[in-house]
Amino acid sequence: MEFPPFQSRQEVVIHAPLQAVWEFGQDLTNIAEYHPRVKRVDLISGKRQREQGVAYRCYLKDGKNTCVEKDLEVVPMERIVTALPEDTMGITNMLPDYIVETRFTPLAENETKVEFRHYYSTKSLKTKLFNVIAAMTKTPDPIQELVTAARRKQILDAATQVFAEKGFHRATIKDIARVAGIADGTIYTYFPSKTEVLLGILHRLNESAEREQHLMPEREQDLRSFFTAYLRKRMALLWPNAEVFQAVLPEMLVNEQLRELYYQQVLVPTFTVAEHSFQAQHGAGQVRSLDVSLTVRAIAGLLLGLLTLQLLGDEVIAQRWEELPEVLTSLLFDGLQPGKETTHE
Predict the structure, then answer these.
(1) What tens digit of pLDDT does each residue of 89-133 get?
(2) Nearby residues of 179 by Cβ (< 8 Å), 6 or more positions away
């Protein structure tokens, strides 16, 4: 099945055989026994065991809220894919395509790893996971994790709109709260300052948490195809958000503290990941020996320079930016000398 973009993962190790862990988790009536916030479960589909298409409603211990989960795929002893089609907390409204994949891996005869992988689109986040079996390592409350991530996304979406309209300097926390439809003080629960809100937006546009995964080619993927696909993915995120950069770039140029935070927290870790990726590709014989530090900065500068050209009013870039990944790939792989052109469909 097709998944939304991967966002994060958590895992726990349970001191029990895979068979026992799987069978216990398959029984939906057990959810209230191991989930810290679920009081009881209604079997909407009338089935007690998990299988594709089975839905169930969880009543939370706060006495106010419920959520409906539906299993989209169940692969015995391997994984479960679950969606969150309905809830009373507003999560599905903010994150309509959120799904969680629960993977089961035997580590030893009496030891099983349970991994929760979260997928959701950043444009449109997370459903419910469980804390399986009593004697396991303590994990964060899954519902609270879900609510927190959803609220952060709501605030960042609103701030993106406000910064694009007013610029960073003129925008206020009150403006962001109004657009998000929440109280001013709520924002400070998730972000201590307006600067941290901006850094949250920049991390999201940078895809900081996912960048290491994005910079690793698939096993059978040639480097040229990987590079083109990577550029296309980055530009598909950056170009529709050009107004955000237009709003915050002037502030970063004059605000030394913000500039330093952005450089140290966003750019430096990204350069480090990219350098490791190039070094790995060199070790595999995919790229020639080169100055890795300068190369990754030169490529980043190409994208930033092109985006800046568009912000300055360049109509060619504005109208044809979707062609740029192939143009940049050809430049980097074929150069400018004649006789090295490569035709691509």
Answers:
(1) 887 887 888 899 999 999 987 788 889 898 888 654 333 332 233
(2) 158, 159, 161, 162
Tell me which CATH code domain 6-125 carries.
Answer: 3.30.530.20
State the burial class of residue 248 (Cβ atoms within 10 Å of its Cβ: 0-12, 13-18, 19+).
Answer: buried
The residue type found at 287 is: V
> What is residue 90's predicted lDDT score, i.e. its pLDDT?
81
Range(s) for CATH 1.10.357 in the chain?
194-334
Residue span(s) of the chain under CATH 3.30.530.20 come to: 6-125
Q: Which of 139-148, 245-254, 315-324 has the lowest mean pLDDT?
A: 139-148
115/12 Cα distance (integer angstroms): 7
HSE at residue 286, side-chain half, CA atoms within 13 A, is 18
Domain 194-334: which topology? Tetracycline Repressor; domain 2 (1.10.357)
DSSP annotation of 63: S
Integer Cα distance of 255 and 251 in angstroms: 6
- Sheet with 6-14: list strands edge to edge: 6-14, 111-119, 99-108, 79-87, 66-75, 55-60, 38-42
Mean pLDDT lowest among 32-41, 165-174, 195-204, 296-305? 32-41
Chain region(s) in the chain for CATH 1.10.10.60:
142-192
Architecture of the domain whose range is 142-192: Orthogonal Bundle (1.10)
Write out the E strands in the chain: 6-14, 38-42, 55-60, 66-75, 79-87, 99-108, 111-119
Longest CA–CA span in the chain (Å) reads 72
